[in-house]
Amino acid sequence: MSTDVAADTTVIKALKRLRMPQTQRNREFWLLLFACVVSGAALTLVQLGALGVIDPVVLAIGGGLAVLAFALHVVLRIVASDADPFVVPIATLLTGLGIAMIYRIDIAFKNTGWDAYSTKQLAWTGISLAGAIAVVILLRNYRILFRYTYIFGLAGILLLLLPFVPGLRIADANAAVWVSLGGVFAFQPGELAKICLAIFFAGYLVRTRESLTSVGKRVLGITWPRMRELGPVLVVWVISLAIIVFQRDLGTGTLIFGMFVAMLYVATGKTSWVLIGLVLVAAGVALATQILSYVRGRFTNWLFLFDANQVDPDGAGYQPMQGLFGLARGGLIGTGWGQGRPQITPLAHSDYIITSLGEELGLIGLFAILCLYMVFVSRGMRIGLAGQDDFGKLLATGLSFTIALQVFIMVGGVTRVIPLTGLTTPFLAAGGSSLVANWLIVALLLRISDGVRRQPRVVIG
After folding, report:
1. Regarding predicted confidence, which is higher, 394 or 280?
2. How many helices (H) does the chain have, and how many strands (E)?
3. Are 108 and 343 in contact (CB under 8 A)?
4. Maximum C-alpha span of the chain
5. What are phi and psi of 4, to 5 degrees?
6. Banded model confidence at residue 459, pLDDT cuts 50, 70, 90
7. CB-side neighbour CA atoms (13 Å) of 327
8. Got the DSSP string for 215-240?
9. What is the DSSP string of 271-307?
10. What is the pLDDT of residues 127-149, one digit of tens each?
11. Contact at 8 Å (CB) between 383 and 364?
């Protein structure tokens, strides 16, 4: 009798394990279907609004990308059935909305074929989804990344240095962040560098967390670290300043330092690290403003945009002004897909895609997009905080915070909350490097969430 009861109990437990992942994946299926329908509707409305006709070729290509998204879903059912069900649908919807807006701007400029940014974005989306599928299949246990902590750190630094290699840097770029292979293939190595550095920071902090939390002097109710523990923070701060100075890239430097401080706070739980980070950011901004003319120009545009004596409205002030005017014209509900004039703003498909979307979708549509980002980041944070694996917790938190900080920097920049920097809006903006990196982040979050749910009690370090 006891044998039969034990056998029944084993069967029930097995059925429960099968039912829960199936429920998660079913939820993902319906959300992904909704994301593909909304993306297809956006492309259709762009064509009707801007052209008055429907081009089935574009819709067919969009359908092909939907097939790839569902291919990722099928792979998750097989090899990562416990993965978070919200990450892929949100990333798919944001990518689809970005493609629709880029396509709308191409229509305004009459760009066709490979000269169209939307065509390149469609190709990069396919590459990104294929890369995400490959990572999910090949990276069966994300904890293996912990073994190569310092290799990833070295790879991140080398990627940041690539634009300075003779023959690789694009000479006429505003910032030294682009490299070109044979004059055909161009990408930003800094996008991949942030992932490598996130893995390095997570592994490093797991190894050194005890010394970062257990020692220091207590002043004003806060335990301050010793200089030997403060050293790594200063090193990252100097690297960030070097990026700003030599690569003329304010955004990437801010992003890397912010990511490190956020992961440091999660690893230690000490408020003093956040305060130190804020002080170093303020000091770095003050120093860069004094010695770098382009940083000083960004702050001048931010503070005195509508003062003709300070900012030339036909020069440096033209782009931010047009972006704000576009947002104002969109109002609450927007002009509708294909009915606005986002092409008036320079780089409306990349740096200023938020204002382009705000003009045609309005404040309500823009808030909906920001809510998607909020849910995406919250799911990533939940993935990290739900597990007991220190490395996975730090890596998931760091990657999620990177997306959040990047969105804040870009949305805040185009709306004059903060000075404008040179980053891209995740998933939305045109650019293959950014899109590939963001979908690799999606793949890592999926693998971490699956690992956390399968082995919640495994601790590394």
Report:
1. 394
2. 14, 4
3. yes
4. 92
5. -65, -40
6. very low
7. 17
8. --EEETTEEEPPHHHHHHHHHHHHHH
9. HHHHHHHHHHHHHHHHHHHHH-HHHHHHHHHHHSTT-
10. 999 999 999 999 989 999 999 98
11. no
